[in-house]
Design a protein that fits this description.
The strands form eight sheets. The chain has a seven-stranded antiparallel sheet with strand order 8-7-6-5-11-10-9. The protein contains 40 helices and 28 strands. 49% of the residues lie in helices and 13% in strands. It comes from Camelus bactrianus (Bactrian camel).
């Protein structure tokens, strides 16, 4: 165990210790007298001393000391009762610490670092032990308090777990604590007087991997857009990495892939996720993937046990998995034995007498007159009780009764299956359905095709018909022998022997039935009598985009096959595809589903083909058939990794494996059906239904290995495609009793260069022998890791497409634009982290166009505006942000996109003065300024400005300026330059003008030229008030002068100096805007041209609006403060009473 470091002066005090090992910094010692066979006096004395001591005072026989070179002070850091225990600590120090210490220059730093690390390990060991004993140990609560204090997250940010570790900065490690929460990875360190805080959102992580560096053999590397960070020195690195993967996977799928997101109910709410939940989820996902069960299936228990296997005449050790509707068994030896028992097939579950030969046995009897004996089950009573409860519930949902009038011939190759026009019979058992259901089936059954489209094998080919049929008969005989020994229902024993039979190719007469059993679609079929017929009735005749796509692809589905050259096959295909699209609108219809369904209809009845399609789309190939085919892309990324591992020479030659991945995508989407002759491809489908996606991975590797020489010699991707296409087109099935069907890729063949023919059975056998060692757990682990990369790749594509559209339309530099996009996206994400989804701001929808995938609402916009806008107006900033949001929200859906946000910022930072003034003008007229604007209701009385004063104002040196001629000319020039096609902006009322002036006064606050700007705006305000008043008088008298300047000049008295503000002569501008006259009852208005022309008369105002603005500093500040601004706002919202009490 690790010890709290305490200094000792002598490493061999009183010669009580003997050094066993030593290094530059550590010494491993053994207590003298321990383990010595001899009778040395010193050893005997020490042994006697230890023996007489009280147990609490006894010294552990082994210890490790920290020694700093040049120092006489030593510190014990670990002790052990056995040599194995102390060697584990020594190995850990060598692997994690020894090489690291050389980077320190100061010996005090070395001692401080090691002691801090050991103390952290002690704390972590303690917390781990407590965590095993209770749900929320005291140590975890302490860590939670520190986490909240150090990172100041809202309460909604749930801490899942924490670890002691080191974060590497170059060659220097920083000892600290790693906190893993639902949305973030956080690291905190306080070492040698320096504090380090690191916050990485899970959605920013692009790669999560285990790697090594010069000093350490095993580290965890976190890769984000711009940085790589290494973490090491964990007590249990495997556990940490799995938890990280789980949290990253949950966060990314919840926030970036909610199109296909389907988590356990306990994980739908992020604030409720715990470490135990994540471990249970990982086990649940492995269970569903291993046995290929429905996603809704929830694992309840995993128990070690042994199952009687009659074919081997012994009990086979393994594990029992129990879930809502299944009892499953998997042997500990991979591939030895696997059993799936749907509870609806179970008749009884009974406890047997407990004996020494059969400890804690139970018998599970099924409807096909088989029984399964499990022994060595812990807590057998509660297990049986829970199973009987679920069994009762399943039978209540799907009642069954025995049919004793007839018995099933177990030697018959015919499987009793479910169809719309027959009883639901499985092994002598009939399903009981309601009278209405039976009548409905009779009415709808004539519309459905009652048999598979290929009812009997057709004899043709290079070999004689007798030879081909004899091979088929041999296969059938082998399968019948297997059924007798291993079972013929879904509950059969699945062993290596059946895998070999499947690899040889399933006989055509059994293919459809075995597909149903291997995929467990037979259970869904029997559990939903009449379901498919109802779907067909509801969906047929409807016209929508999905049905149009289906109709377009119907005649492209195996057009060379006779079964789809008539309306019978086409109609059945139409019904199955349309019914499935109606059942699962999320998927609807995707290309390649038509080819797969066509083949299913060749070997299965129409309703059976429908349930096989359900099994493939929803269980066996999850997330393959949706808008972005994420599942297929993930498997392509996994396939690339497998190529690097299994075919390194090919990977070395083809540096960019993405080309191969793009070629192999159709292999996965269509299970080789579209790129291989049909009679060969169905053998691949046989393996797929038995072994799942693993069969496609290993066959793909076998194809690449067979063509490695040709691929290495190819000059480009096109030639590589030609090599693979010619090979796949010449894969034959010598055992197929049917005629060869021409391949889709026959045009790739070159008649002048004959290609050798490959037998599909040989290719499949090679794939199992050479690449069949990949387990389901390994594939699922790789899928989890590569899903992160694929989702981040989609995010990068979205980002680049949005930037590509925006860049030509703004003057912001591309690198700054990228930073703005990241801020915009992060603002959206923060609301997803800690706020309940609001109908106004829906979560990320990847099915929308790129520009609309991320949108923000008014509150999010206000925070971003405060962070990056150059027009900060103190307390007035929020009001200006509200008006800007209303202006940008063209479609009034209370959301704005990135393009609108950036266009507005571009005017603020890079626009000409007239563009900036125009934007300000629009912010103070409807729709931006509303009647209910929170800053526009204040009464404006006791005016300090008089609108009847002259327009000739004095300067500080006594000179006077006549603005009337200048104003007149400017208005003329602006009128000429104005684009006639541009929609003219409405004039501004006095109330709106007052708000406009308030905004300007707020913008000038704390500017270096604040005094000059206040005096200039006072002058312009007076001028514009008089312009509006003159226009009002002209309008009320019925005569409207075309030149406002002439009216003003005629009404102006003799020049005299007008000090607009009381402190104008002091040179100090006011801190608050002046009061304005109340709006008159008439039509007081000013136009944009009036305002712009007036502002141009003051050079200080021109300089203010035309001075260059630096967006980079704002962006850097925003990246630092974005989180704190959000958390501060949320803390204010969650603690209103605290705020009131503080007042």
């Amino acid at each position: 165990m690790w010890l709290k470091p305490e200094e000792v002066l002598l490493k061999n005090a009183l010669k009580l210790w003997v050094t066993q090992k030593s290094s530059c910094y550590f010494i491993l010692q053994r207590r003298r007298g321990h383990g010595e066979g001899g009778g040395r006096l010193t050893g005997r004395l020490v042994g006697a001393l230890d023996a007489v001591l009280d147990s609490n005072a006894r010294v552990a026989p082994f210890r490790i000391l920290l020694q700093v070179p040049g120092s006489q002070v030593y510190s014990p850091i670990a002790c052990g009762a056995t040599l194995e225990e102390i060697n584990q600590h020594w190995d850990w120090l060598e692997q994690n610490l020894l090489h690291t210490l050389s980077v320190f220059d100061n010996k005090d730093d070395i001692a401080s670092f090691v002691k801090g690390k050991v103390k952290a390990l002690i704390a972590e060991e303690t917390s781990s032990r407590l965590a095993e004993q209770e749900e929320e140990p005291e140590k975890f609560r302490e860590a939670l308090v520190k986490f909240e204090a150090r990172f100041n997250f809202p309460e909604a940010e749930k801490l899942v777990t924490y670890y002691s570790c080191c974060c590497w900065k170059g060659r220097v490690p920083r000892q600290g604590w790693l906190y893993l929460s639902t949305n973030h990875l956080c690291f905190y360190s306080f070492f040698l007087g320096k504090e380090l805080k690191l916050v990485v959102p899970w959605v920013d992580i692009q790669k999560l991997e285990r790697t090594s560096n010069v000093f350490l053999t095993d580290t965890i590397r976190i890769t984000t857009q711009n940085k790589e960070r290494d973490f090491s020195m964990f007590l249990n690195l495997d556990e940490v990495f799995k938890i990280m993967e789980q949290l990253a996977d949950v966060a990314l799928r919840r926030l970036l892939d909610n199109e296909g997101f389907d988590l356990d109910p306990g994980l739908q709410e992020p604030s409720q996720i715990t470490k135990r939940d994540l471990e249970a989820r990982a086990q649940n996902e492995f269970f569903r993937a291993f046995f290929r069960l429905p996603r809704r299936e929830k694992l309840h228990a995993v128990l070690d046990c042994s199952l009687w296997t009659p074919f081997s005449r012994c009990h086979t050790a393994g594990r029992m998995f129990t879930s809502d509707s299944y009892i499953c068994f998997a042997s500990k030896e991979d591939g030895c034995c696997k059993v799936i028992l749907p509870l609806r097939e179970v008749v009884s579950i009974e406890k047997m007498e407990d004996t020494s030969l059969l400890p804690n046995p139970i018998i599970v009897s099924i409807r096909s007159k088989m029984a399964f004996q499990f022994i060595e089950l812990r807590d057998r009573d509660s297990l049986v009780e829970n199973l009987l409860t679920r069994l009762k519930q399943v039978h209540a949902d799907h009642p069954v009764r025995y049919d004793t009038s007839r018995d099933e011939d177990m030697t018959s190759p015919v499987f009793h299956s479910t169809s719309m026009c027959s009883d639901h019979r499985f092994g002598g058992l009939e399903m009981v359905s309601s009278q209405n259901s039976e009548e409905r089936e009779k009415e709808t059954s004539p519309r459905l095709h009652p048999e598979a489209l290929v009812t009997a094998p057709r004899q043709s080919g290079s070999q004689s018909p007798d030879s081909r049929m004899s091979r088929e008969q041999i296969k059938i005989s082998l399968w019948n022998d297997h059924f007798v020994e291993y079972g013929r229902t879904v509950c059969m024993f699945r062993t290596e022997k059946i895998r070999k039979l499947v690899a040889m190719g399933i006989p055509e007469s059994l293919r459809g039935k075995l597909w149903l059993l291997f995929s467990d679609a037979v259970t869904d079929l029997a559990a939903h009598p009449g379901y498919y017929g109802n779907l067909v009735e509801e969906s047929m005749g409807r016209c929508c985009l999905v049905t149009e796509e289906i109709e377009r692809d119907l005649h492209r589905s195996l057009p060379e096959h006779p079964a789809f050259q008539n309306e019978t096959g086409i109609a059945a295909l139409r019904r199955v595809l349309t019914a499935y699209a109606h059942r699962n609108p999320k998927i609807g219809y995707c290309q390649s589903m038509n080819i797969l369904t066509s083949v299913l209809l060749l070997y299965a009845k129409e309703e059976e083909a429908f349930w096989l399609l359900v099994a493939v789309c929803e269980r066996m190939l999850p997330d393959y058939f949706n808008h972005r085919v994420i599942g297929a892309q993930v498997d392509q990324s996994v396939f690339e990794e497998l190529i690097r591992e299994q075919l390194p020479e090919l990977a070395e030659h083809m540096k960019d494996l993405s080309a191969l991945a793009s070629i192999s995508l159709s292999w996965f989407l269509t299970l080789f059906l579209s790129i291989m002759p049909l009679e060969s491809a169905v053998n691949v489908v046989d393996c797929f239904f038995y072994d799942g996606i693993k069969a496609i991975f290993q066959l793909g590797l076998a194809v690449l290995e067979a063509n490695a020489q040709g691929l290495c010699g190819s000059r480009d991707d096109g030639q590589a495609l030609m090599v693979l296409s010619r090979f796949l087109d010449h894969i034959k099935n010598e055992d197929s009793p049917g005629p060869p069907v021409s391949s889709h890729h026959a045009f790739f063949s070159d008649d002048h260069e004959p290609c050798p023919v490959t037998d599909i059975a040989d290719l499949i056998r090679d794939s199992y022998e050479k690449f069949g060692d990949q387990s389901v757990a390994q594939i699922e682990h790789m899928r989890c890791r590569h899903r992160i990369r694929v989702l981040q790749g989609h995010e990068e594509t979205t980002k680049q497409n949005v930037l590509r559209v925006v860049i030509p339309e703004v003057s912001v530099l591309p690198e700054d634009l990228e930073e703005l996009y990241d801020l915009f996206k992060r603002e959206h994400m923060m609301s997803c982290y800690w706020e309940q989804p609001r109908p106004v701001a829906p979560r990320h929808d990847p099915s929308r166009p790129y520009a609309e995938q991320y949108r923000i609402d008014a509150r999010q916009f206000a925070r971003l505006f405060q962070l990056v806008s150059p027009w900060t107006c103190g307390a007035h900033t929020d009001i200006l942000a509200e008006r800007t949001f209303r202006l940008l929200d063209d479609n009034m859906d209370h959301l704005i996109e990135f393009k609108a946000f950036v266009s507005c910022l571009d005017i603020m930072y890079n626009g000409e003065m007239n563009e900036k003034i125009k934007l300000l003008y629009r912010l103070h007229i409807p729709p931006a300024l509303t009647e209910n604007d929170r800053d526009s209701q204040s009464p404006l009385k006791n005016p300090l400005l008089s609108t009847s004063r002259p327009l000739v104002l004095g300067k500080s040196n006594g000179d006077t300026i006549d603005y009337q001629k200048q104003l007149k000319q400017m208005i003329k020039d602006l009128a000429k330059e104005k684009d006639k096609t541009e929609k003219e902006l409405p004039k501004m009322s006095q109330r709106e003008f007052i708000q406009f002036c308030k905004t300007l006064y707020s913008m000038f606050h704390e500017d270096p030229e604040e005094n000059d700007l206040y005096q200039a705006i006072a002058t312009v305000t007076t001028l514009l008030l008089q312009i509006g008043e003159v226009g009002q008088r002209g309008s009320s008298s019925g005569s409207c002068s075309q030149e406002g300047g002439e009216e003003l000049q005629a009404s102006a008295p003799s020049p005299e100096q007008d000090s607009v503000f009381a402190d104008a002569d002091t040179g100090k501008g006011p801190q608050e805007p002046p009061a304005f006259p109340e709006e008159a009852q008439g039509g007081w208005t000013v136009s944009l041209e009036h305002i712009l022309a007036s502002l141009l008369t003051e050079q200080s105002l021109v300089n203010f609006f035309e001075k260059p603005l630096d967006i980079k500093s704002k962006l850097e500040n925003a990246k630092i403060n974005q989180y704190s601004l959000k958390t501060t706002e949320m803390s204010r919202q969650s603690q209103p009473e605290l705020k009131l009490s503080d007042l």
